[in-house]
Amino acid sequence: MNEVFYNFIHMAVDNQHIFDSGLYFLTFTNYKWLPLLEVTRSYDLVYKWFDILKSNGHQIVGYVTMPNHLHALIGFYPGKKSINTIVGNGKRFIAYDIVKRLEEAQKVDLLKTLSDGVSASDKRKGKLHELYEGTFDLKLCHSYKFVKQKLDYMHANPVIKKWNLAINATDYIHSSAKFYETGEPGVYEVTHANDWMYKNWDSAWLEEATCK
């Protein structure tokens, strides 16, 4: 698939609902890149959402939960609900409890920042806080090479100079890096990319390389 197709998939998040099953690379980010997940220790909320996805037949293939954003490889089987709706519901689920935890911790300044970030039109609809930057980024994965690239990109996040959250990718617990490197389950159990692809892709889509 070419760059034009990727741009269409990305734009479709905003312009139309996506019902096509497949393995998607998902990213969403907290408003103003604020470390809301870390401040409220809300990593568990992401994993609760993953549990909901699994209970509805979807599969988590890889992830890294950072202090202010999430990257995940998710095998979606939308059915009657579009991927847009599924992700939107997840974001709202996480946002609701983040705000609740901020209120309980009396993080007044942060709550004001999130309140000030709500657009006038959204305020008229009753929205009280802005928890996210834009909507979300979504890319359809179509080859081992592309999946491996996204897994490597995700798993490298905590160790880059900007973050420096761990010396080795496998040391960062909020990531599937340990599973892919050692085979041992991390803080959240995922489906190996190879298993997902061999089950869901026909031979015309498969290449010789595998994800390690």
Describe the structure.
- The protein has a domain of 144 residues: Alpha-Beta Plaits (2-Layer Sandwich).
- It is 44% helix and 13% strand.
- Helix 3 runs antiparallel to helix 4.
- It contains nine helices and four strands.
- It is globular and about 50 Å long.
- The chain is an alpha+beta fold and 212 residues long.
- The protein has a four-stranded antiparallel beta sheet with strand order 2-3-1-4, with helices on both faces.
- Strand 2 and strand 3 form a beta hairpin.
Oligomer: single chain
The CATH homology group name of the domain at 3-146: Transposase IS200-like
Side-by-side strand order of the widest sheet: 2-3-1-4
Name the structural class.
Answer: alpha+beta
Radius of gyration: 18 Å
Task: Report the sheet with the most strands, covering strand number, pairing sense and barrel closure.
Answer: 4 strands, antiparallel
What CATH architecture label of the domain at 3-146 applies? 2-Layer Sandwich
Look at the structure and give the mean pLDDT.
89
SSE blueprint:
Blueprint lengths: L2 H13 L6 E8 L6 H4 L3 H13 L3 E7 L3 E8 L6 H22 L3 H9 L3 H5 L12 E4 L3 H13 L20 H6 L10 H8 L12
Task: Write out key terms for the chains shown.
212 residues; alpha+beta; Alpha-Beta Plaits; 4-stranded antiparallel beta sheet; 44% helix; 13% strand
